[in-house]
Structure formats: C-alpha cells, structure tokens
Amino acid sequence: MTQPTIESILQENRTFAPPAEFSQAATIGSMEQYRELYDKAKADPAAFWAELAATELDWFQKWDQVLDWQPPHGQWFVGGKLNISYNCLDRHLTTWRKNKAALIWEGEPGESVTLTYAQLHREVCKMANVFKSLGVKKGDRVGIYMPMIPEAAIAMLACARIGAPHSVVFGGFSAEALKTRLIDAEAKLVVTADGGYRKDKTIPLKPAVDAALAHDGVPSVENVLVVQRTHEKITMEPGRDHWWHDLKAGASAVCPAEPMDSEDLLFILYTSGTTGNPKGVVHTTAGYNLYTHMTCKWTLDLKDTDVYWCTADVGWITGHSYIVYGPLSNGATSLMYEGVPRPSNPGCFWDVIEKYGVTIFYTAPTAIRAFIKLGEHLPNARDLSSLRLLGTVGEPINPEAWMWYHKVIGGERCPIIDTWWQTETGGFMLTPLPGATPTKPGSATLPFPGILADVVDLEGNPVKDGEGGYLVITHPWPSMLRTVYGDDDRFRRTYWEHIQPKEGQHFYFAGDGARRDADGYFWVMGRVDDVINVSGHRLGTMEIESALVSHPAVAEAAVVGRTDDLKGEDVFAFVTLEGDYTGSDALINELKQHVAKEIGAIARPGDIRFTDVLPKTRSGKIMRRLLRNLASGQEIAGDTSTLEDRSVLDKLRGGA
Ligand code: WTA
Q1: Pick from 385, 330, 289, 280: which is nearest to 53 by CA?
Q2: d(CA 334, ligand 1 centre) in Å
Q3: pLDDT in tens, 132-150
Q4: Whose CA is nearest to atom 23 of ligand 1?
C-alpha cells in the first residue's frame, strides 16, 4: 500500500451518502440543514456563536461583547465568566446524568474503572483541593506528565476548576523534552505517575521527572504529585514529592469552580514548529469550551446513548478536546484506553469495542494502516456491530485505508468523519457532519459551520479548483489559539505573515497545502513547512537536527520526511561527522538512540545516512527539497540552480 499521490487523490470520485437511518437520527440530518447553518454563520458569525454560547454553555456571568477582533488577536465572549470544569461536571449533577458513566477506563493489563459524573466530580474536587494545599493558585501553571489513566483527565479538570492553566506533556517524551516544556511554562507543580503500561512494558515516568528537575533544572517547580500506577520502586524526594493517595485521603470533596474570565488561559500545549523549540499554543476558556462542545455535538453526533472512544493520548490536542473537554461538556460517556495494539494482544482495540459496545470510534490513519497489516481476521473475530460512526484525524488518509475502515470496521454502515484540524485550531475545522455530508475517501470535505476556509496563493487569492495552494482560515473562530506562550512575535510570524492578502484581510496560515475540487470539497495534501508528520505526531525537523548535533560525533545534520507506508512519513536524517569519527551501523544505532533520549521514541530516525557534504544554497541554507527527493529515492525535481556546489548531488546519490 502506498501513500496517495496528488493525481490519485484527485481522481478519487467515489462518494458515500450518509445512510438514511443515520441521517434520520442525527442532530444535523441533511445537507440543507448544514447549508442553512453554514450560511447563517457566514452572514453573521458573532450572532451565530453568541446564540450557541447562550444555549449550550452555563455562565456565571454573561459576556458584554461576542468578538473583539484586533488582528491577529481575537477575544471571544469578552466580560463573560464561566468555568469549563463546571460545564463538564457540575451542571450534569442536577440532571439524570449524575449517575451516568462519564469516563470508562480500561487499563492495558486489563483492569477497568467506570467513573460516573458524580464520582468524577468528587475526584476532581479532591485533586483541586490537593493542588491548593500545595500552594497552587489561580494563574499558576501545572505540568501534567501522565500515562493514560483517569487521573490524567482528573488532573486537567482539577486545574481548570481552580484556574491553574495546565501544560500536558505526552508521557512518551523524554526527560529533556519535558524539562524544556516545564521551563518555558514555568510550571509550579508537576503531576505524574510512577509509570504506565504501554506495549506490554512499563514506561517509567517519575524517573524522567526526577531527571528533568535534577540540579534545580526547573527552578519554578515546587512540588511533584505522584499517582501510583505500576507500583515500581521510585524515589520520592522528601518535601518535594507527594503521593496522590496520601494527600487524597485528607482532601475535601467540596471545591467550588472558580469563576474564570472567558479569556483566562485554560491551557498551554506544546507543538512542533518550523524553528527550534516547540511552541506553547495558548487556549483560553470560553471559546474553547464552546467550540469543542459544538463540534462534539454536530460532528461526533454525540448522544446520551453513545459509548464514545477516541484512541488518542491526552498528551495531544485530540485527547484534550475529544477525550476530556468536548465529550464531558456534552454529558457524554468517554472511554479512555491505556494501551495500544501490542504483541500480546494485537486485537485489543476490537476487544474494547466489543466489551463496552462502543458506538463511536475515533482514531488515526496510521493506526488504520497498522490494523490492515495485522489482518482482517482480528476485527472479524469480534462483534463490532455496536459501531455507528467512525472517525479519523492526524494526517491525510489514503483512500485504500479509508475503504478498509469503511468495509472491515464499519461494516459499510458507518459514516466516516475525516476531521482536519490542529493543536492551534482547538477543534475540527474541515469535517463532514455524518448525517448530512456525502463523503469521499481521502477528503476532509467541508468547513464546520462558522469556519471560513480557503485555498489561496501567497497573496491570498483563491486558487482555481483542483490547483494546489495554502490552506487558510479567513475569519476568527472561538477556539483559535490566542498566542504562542511568551512569544507573541512568533505567533504573528508563524501564522499571520506568510500570506499577504489585501489590505484589511487577515488569513490564518495553517502550514498545510490543500486543493479544492469542483464540489468545493477540501483535500488536505500535508505540510508545506519543515514540520513532518510521523504516525500523526508532529515533529519539527529543526528539533531533531538539534538533537543530532548535540551528539559529539555529529558536525551537521539535515532532517527530512520520507514517505512511509505505515507511518505516513518517517524521519530521515543526513549527517556529516566530526573529523575523528567514521560512519558505521553501530554509530547509526547510537544516533537513533540519542534522538530518542533527547526528544522521545516518536522522533527516532527511521534512517540515517552519512555524507561528507550537505547540499546548500550560496547563502548557506540547506536545500531540503533535494534531500526529500533523495530520501524518497525520487529524481531530483525542480530548480537546482541555487545549489552552491553541484557535485554534492552526485556524491549524495553515490551514497544511496
Ligand atoms: C495534519 C492534530 C490531513 C495536518 C489534530 C495538520 C491532517 C497537523 C488531518 C496538525 C486530516 C490533521 N487530514 N491532515 N484529517 N488532521 N492533519 O497539531 O498536517 O498534532 O496541520 O493536531 O496534522 O497536527 P496536530
């Protein structure tokens, strides 16, 4: 199976209408209804969002102004007061949902826990009180470095409850990566666990926190709260480290939700960009709450009868918006699974669907491609008839994978929502509404109502149908990132200055290339910047290059993405060595290991090639385009006239 080419995608003309039965029961059940909402929102976006904010969320105080747009800064529901943990928990307690399952959790070794809304509320209040007892106040940042256990969601909600912005760091990141993120956010408290289970192994987490904090590595951190999960032996530093179960025992289950301003910082989430360090993407309270709520309601078509499972990790935006905040704001049942398909049980996902009668399943194309490889017999051996809706996110889905998902997992009866969005957008931007939108394999279809998207050239002119261009959002939306934490200049440069539209226009530049077909459907083609997407995880080429050159053997490194059947893209590194070193297989392995240690296993290069020289322009810029071609074994495409030393190409080819 290969990745889609532009040509194959544009020749894709299969269309799948929503099944009639699905449409009849769906919240948005026809294209007419979608068009009506879309047109209404386009005509007056502020009025559209204000109406939904008033009916869908609970407020402590109503806003004065719906949108204050001072490009590129948008503020939503200015002057309003609310609390997202109140909207996710408290407001359900006065309804029949009080004893409904909020979170269903399944651990990799097989344990399970169900927390009702009332129980989850109690846990969150207790943790919020523990945070307070550790000196955390409104506005203080809390780092969360956790396995996929209920306490990860509890910690996030507890932060939101007392107005302490969280910064969740994916548990697969290394101590070094954790440290830079904690330093940037100036976290006061870190919430972690002794470890977690993944792929039949335990992953140590607390030791990584210890390494990050060693020698006063993160001076802002005063306390570490540790959840016991694996019971492995760890060291606890007296005065700094506290067991959650110890402090919980004495904590009150009463903790009123702090009234937060609409624009108060809700969380920071670091994501890779084109240059150096990861960016702290800033999301605020009201707009994020409303947008994740509405997208769950209309795109996931979440209902009280659903058991909804998103397979992401809470360390990514998908886990934030579509495991925790969006589903709980809707009073839904959200399933959290600690594990991933693994040697001891490659069919574990299908077991979970059968065991809990999952109705909505949301995963990533890379996972689907892995399932295809593992074989149909695994899902076929389970009863998946409870499923009614399937979703995908993270990277373009190749039509073959889409068709397999449709047939083998969806039994040809479940619509597929291919949702295009980003850490920065907070929620789904381009997506089918499953009861309304006819789908085409490989297309994220149309904008969510209230989202104005376009495909443009560098001057902001829309390109012709079928032509490639830059994907942009042309009007502010409630859950847009507000800034890059501590670096507003970077926010402007990264997202608002690439495209130079007409005077008075401001386009959000997503960093993705796209095309639109004659039906107005969007086809996202992938990143146009130096970000690579490995198994749906965003990695900056610069970050990996920095990790490589921090090894004594490496003089210079250039990292590019190479097409990979399973991962979508894989990391390919070209490396020049310091004089005393010679390339060997052992050194390749050592460098791969070094990157995993510096960043995390997700960044480990799939391939490293040693070379004497890197192709550069006369001004000294590495010509990545050429390296991308070489890495993928393609002919060198395009202009090479700016190359300083043309013999470099022959040398690189010779090394192939
Ligand atoms: C890519 C994940 C095509 C895209 C929610 C985007 C997609 C980046 C899709 C954001 C999709 C995500 N089709 N490409 N359905 N969904 N992407 O911030 O390149 O981890 O810019 O957010 O993933 O990745 P992030």
Answers
A1: 289
A2: 22
A3: 999 999 999 999 999 999 9
A4: 394
